[in-house]
Structure of Sulfate transporter:
Amino acid sequence: MYTHLLVPTDGSELSTKALTQAINFAKSLGAKITFLYVQPEFPLLIAGEGALLLPENREEFARDTAAQAEQILSEARSRAAAQGVEASSCTAVSDVPYQVIINTADAEGCDLVFMASHARKGLVGIILGSETKKVLSHSKIPVLVYR
């Protein structure tokens, strides 16, 4: 059936629940997991007459998001190891998470994406859409969505 799952995670409560279910699913199949955390790009905020507002300096932002990624991925690998599931992890920096998820699944040879649904509602959902929906629409491999 499935032998290699890609499990994107962002450390949120729903994502952590999906991660737990993905580990259980992989264990039942004898499959391995690659965990993925997509770090955001450095934000540039424009205000007023085009003035740039920088929330932090670029290096500090990159260091903080990389540390957050490693913390989340380390916890994911530990949880998988505790269940006897082979797991690795990777991270990438992008403001287009769905594309990173699809590209990583392909590059890692995954045969299933197992991810949480973070459906946005209202106007935000119309404008931004859902990364899960985008993965479902563009992925060439099966996607299992945990709700």
Summary: The beta strands are 4-8, 32-39, 45-47, 51-53, 87-93, 112-116, 143-146.
